[in-house]
Each structure stands twice: as structure tokens, then as C-alpha cells.
Design brief:
Blueprint: H1 3-33, H2 45-58, E1 68-69, E2 75-76, H3 80-95, H4 98-108, H5 118-144, H6 155-175, H7 181-198, H8 206-221
Antiparallel strand pairs: 1-2
Helix pairs in contact: 1-7, 2-8, 3-4, 3-5, 5-6, 6-7
């Protein structure tokens, strides 16, 4: 591994940890300072646990439903590419090509690790590429047509989606030796390192903060 990639990984990990440390500090600081006009009634442990489980379910099973009901009972299919992107990337990242398995095996000190069949891994990777491209296209269309949804997309949202798409493409090409393997693998590493560094500073932070915010809400409300 070249020094650029190695030290790039160290810097990316440092920015990742620093970013989330700052975000967590802000969340808990806000939570402690939040106005509480009256002392809430004591909640039982069962009620708190129920609330936490309910809200965590909303960011797992509930979120992964590809169809969402909007106001007026309409069903939106705009979430489908996002759901496909998350599912495919998670599966390929954990159980994907052999190169990923070598990384996880070295990280956890295991000699063997389950690997997906190459054809299945390829299919999921292609689906991931298509879904990211669709998400980019959707954001671009919203912005160009000045849709009310355009406000949810900033420059950083386009940037990290482009880097994510490039990381997937470079990885796919490297696995299949389409082009210069060393160059493609280096580009894949660098793209992933950029994503790791960006995660706590962009909307990608939801991969961690989504669980925390929902968990805090469930703990406080004890609803469900």
C-alpha cells in the first residue's frame, strides 16, 4: 500500500472520529439544555425500552420499506432508489468481493469469512451504481426545475454521491481487471477514504446519528 493511501486512511479515520465527537457533544449539549417547563412523570423501564425499540424499528424495518405514505395517503416511490442503494451497498460491503473479505479478515483476525458468489455480488454492485445514479439524477432534476424539493440538496449532497458512485465503479472495474488494476484499486481506496472523512460532516452522518437521535427520542418519550 502506497504512503499516500496509508496516511490518507489515517487522516480520514481521524476526521471521522473528530467529526462524530463534535456532533455527539453538540447533540448531548442540546439535549441537556432543552427547555423542560415541567418535570415529566417518571417512566417505567418497560416504557422506556418500548419507546427505544419502537423508534429503532423506524430506522430499520420501517425505513427499509421502499414505499412511503405521504400526506393525503399518497404512496411515494421516490424512496425506492435510496432503499436499493442502502441495501446493496451494505451487503456488498460486508459480504461482497473477496478483496472486502481480506480486509475484514485482517481487521478482525479471522482466517475465513463468508463471501457472496461473484455473480450475485456483481448484480448487487450494478444495482448500487444504478440507484446512486438515479439519486443524483433526481437531485439534479429537482434543482434544475426549481422544485420545492430542490432546497434539500446542497453542493455537498451532490459531491458525496459522485464520490460514492466513483468508489463503486472503481471497485467494480478493479475486481474484473478492466483497465490498470493498481490505478483503479488506488482510486477506489482514495474514494472510500474521502467518503469516510466526509461522513460526520455531511448528511451521510445519518448512518450513525439516525440511531442516536431515534434512540434518545424513544428513551425520552417512552412511546410506541
Amino acid at each position: 500500500m502506497s504512503p499516500i493511501i496509508y496516511y490518507g486512511g489515517v487522516i480520514a479515520l481521524f476526521l471521522f472520529i473528530l467529526g462524530f465527537a463534535i456532533r455527539f457533544a453538540r447533540i448531548f449539549s442540546f439535549y441537556k439544555k432543552k427547555d423542560k417547563p415541567e418535570e415529566p412523570a417518571p417512566k417505567s423501564k418497560k416504557s422506556i425500552l418500548k419507546g427505544i425499540l419502537y423508534t429503532l424499528k423506524e430506522v430499520t424495518v420501517g425505513w427499509f420499506s421502499p414505499f412511503r405514505f405521504e400526506r393525503g395517503g399518497r404512496v411515494s416511490v421516490l424512496y425506492v432508489p435510496s432503499v436499493i442503494m442502502h441495501i446493496t451497498i451494505i451487503i456488498v460491503l460486508i459480504f461482497g468481493p473477496a478483496a472486502h473479505m481480506v480486509f475484514w479478515s485482517r481487521l478482525f483476525g479471522q482466517s475465513s469469512y463468508p463471501v457472496l458468489p461473484m455473480s450475485f455480488s456483481d448484480a448487487l454492485t450494478i444495482l448500487a451504481m444504478i440507484s446512486v445514479a438515479l439519486l443524483l439524477s433526481r437531485r439534479a432534476i429537482f434543482t434544475l426545475t426549481k422544485s420545492p424539493m430542490a432546497g434539500i440538496s446542497g453542493v455537498s449532497d451532490f459531491f458525496w454521491l459522485v464520490i460514492l458512485l466513483l468508489a463503486i465503479i472503481f471497485g467494480y472495474l478493479a475486481v474484473h481487471n478492466i483497465g490498470d488494476y493498481s490505478l483503479l484499486l488506488s482510486a477506489h481506496y482514495i474514494s472510500v477514504e474521502i467518503l469516510v472523512a466526509l461522513t460526520p460532516w455531511t448528511k451521510m452522518s445519518h448512518v450513525v446519528l439516525g440511531w442516536v437521535s431515534k434512540g434518545l427520542y424513544g428513551w425520552e418519550s417512552g412511546t410506541g
